[in-house]
Amino acid sequence: xxxxxxxxxxxxxxxxxxxxxxxxxxxxxxxxxxxxxxxxxxxxxxxxxxxxxxxxxxxxxxxxxxxxxxxxxxxxxxxxxxxxxxxxxxxxxxxxxxxxxxxxxxxxxxxxxxxxxxxxxxxxxxx
Length: 127
Description:
Layout: H1 27-34, H2 38-47, E1 54-56, E2 60-62, H3 65-80, H4 85-92, H5 96-126
Antiparallel strand pairs: 1-2
């Protein structure tokens, strides 16, 4: 009998393994549960302040169930919905409006700069 490899990629939460009923998970276990490499989890800890597993002897990380669910949410935003890290950070903080305000503020500033440059061009043409 030949063995077939499962080459499908896990993209949604339903494609991932169920989370066992445990209090704590090692970084390796979380990596397996979320289909991520441990270095990605360590990087996300730096980028998302809400993700902060407790650390014990030897600086070993211990994630709780809420952390595993949060990692899956981050993964869905970044890989599933195509968010940037900054966009995902704002979304998770509930600050989508802040992002929109930043864009609107940038647009208004650009319009002001264009108007000022047009005035400078007019003055230069008069000379």
